[in-house]
């Protein structure tokens, strides 16, 4: 897989420890390129020494030669005495520092100095403790600042995706990616264009070219809804592939499956096929300038049209065939028609209610016939014989 590098660093909080003396350590969740996740503990004095060494290794990027060239983030020096308040207040700055650090150019973010500092140490797996001393107190970084205005809001953790093929941008608002690039997704639009960032670049990338690191992303897609949602066609489109539909502006259709790549499966009368979601608008929804601007752009490419795909997952995405869509749609439409037909043919006759079972006379059990004298003599005991003799 090549040299190890860090995909993401998330600050979880800090611990107050009492051995060998009272001190504080920060907890970091480090996500590596092999998909492993490790928790490491670092004191702020260690982090600051690491930061000073990083600046010495990259004087241009640290702004020592020209301040305008600085891209390495700032980090305040430790105080003479770091108490719990300063440790807590520093969390926001430290979280932002780690986020910026990982997104620096690879020569910095993937250098041995960074990799070695965040590698798991023996003390991370087996922290020094003493049964006679108090156990460490853990303070997690708050995620919801609305609960307490004084809380430090946690960092915004962006999802990291991997490019499965090369993509060349066709406009200034898009971003080119190479197969294997790790991008952070800032915004996922249902039209199939996702706003991503890579190092210092930002732009729109087709969702079809991206895959999550932990597995195929069909789990993020909605299940088909064969009942359908009513939508209006806002822009005409002429089908290019056999499984696409050609529609005109103003047509009314039903969306039965919303897919991540921005190509939705729709139904027009009894015909199903793919159509660009960015050219559709939900029935009854007010048109906005943002949607109008998006519709002026070209439709994103479909996953099935991408060549030279290089996925890191052995199992591919599950795909529903167009024939399955048609079959289930026909079944739904037929059931809907049968329901309507039955409701129309139902006679308007008032049916009298049956009397409750409590008011009906209950049937009496039949009285069995009396046995004959010969039967009694053959099968009964002597005491019974005497009664009939």
Automatic annotation (TrEMBL):
CDD domains found in the cross-reference section: PX_p47phox (cd06887), SH3_p47phox_1 (cd12021), SH3_p47phox_2 (cd12022)
Region listing for Disordered, in residue ranges: 334-378
Domain SH3: 156-215, 226-285
PROSITE patterns according to UniProt: PX (PS50195), SH3 (PS50002)
Superkingdom classification of source: Eukaryota
Localization (cell): Cytoplasm
Identification of the protein by name: NCF1 factor
Species whose genome carries this gene: Dasyornis broadbenti (rufous bristle-bird)
């Amino acid at each position: 897989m090549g040299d190890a590098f860090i995909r993401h660093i998330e600050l979880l909080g800090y611990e107050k420890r009492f051995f060998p003396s009272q001190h504080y350590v920060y907890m970091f969740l480090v996500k590596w390129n092999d998909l492993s996740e490790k928790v490491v503990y670092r004191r702020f004095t260690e982090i600051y020494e690491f930061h000073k060494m990083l600046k010495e290794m990259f004087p241009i990027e640290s702004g020592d030669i020209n301040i305008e060239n600085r891209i390495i983030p700032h980090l305040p020096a430790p105080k003479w005495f770091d108490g719990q308040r300063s440790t807590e207040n520093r969390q926001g700055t430290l979280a932002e520092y780690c986020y910026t650090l990982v997104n620096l150019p690879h020569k910095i973010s993937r250098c041995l100095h960074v990799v070695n500092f965040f590698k798991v140490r023996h003390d991370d797996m087996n922290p020094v403790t003493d049964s006679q001393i108090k156990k460490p107190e853990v303070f997690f970084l708050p995620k919801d600042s609305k609960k307490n205005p004084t809380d430090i809001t946690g960092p915004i953790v962006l999802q990291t995706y991997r490019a499965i093929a090369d993509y060349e941008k066709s406009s200034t608002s898009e971003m080119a990616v190479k197969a294997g690039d790790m991008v952070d997704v800032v915004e996922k639009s249902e039209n199939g264009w996702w706003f991503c960032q890579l190092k210092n670049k930002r732009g729109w990338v087709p969702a079809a070219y991206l895959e999550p690191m932990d597995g195929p992303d069909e789990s993020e897609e909605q299940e088909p809804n064969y009942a359908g949602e009513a939508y209006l066609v806002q822009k005409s489109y002429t089908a290019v592939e056999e499984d696409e539909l050609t529609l005109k502006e103003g047509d009314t259709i039903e969306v039965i499956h919303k897919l991540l790549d921005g190509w939705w499966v729709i139904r027009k009368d009894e015909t199903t096929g793919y159509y660009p979601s960015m050219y559709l608008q939900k029935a009854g929804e007010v048109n906005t300038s943002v949607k109008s601007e998006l519709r002026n752009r070209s439709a994103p490419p479909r996953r099935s049209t991408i060549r030279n795909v290089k996925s890191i997952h052995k199992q591919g995405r599950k795909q529903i065939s167009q024939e399955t869509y048609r079959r289930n749609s026909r079944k739904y439409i037929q059931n809907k028609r049968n329901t309507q037909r039955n409701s129309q043919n139902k006679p308007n006759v008032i049916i009298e209610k049956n009397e409750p079972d409590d008011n009906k006379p209950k049937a009496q059990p039949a009285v069995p016939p009396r046995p004959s004298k010969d039967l009694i003599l053959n099968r009964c005991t002597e005491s019974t014989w005497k009664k009939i003799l």
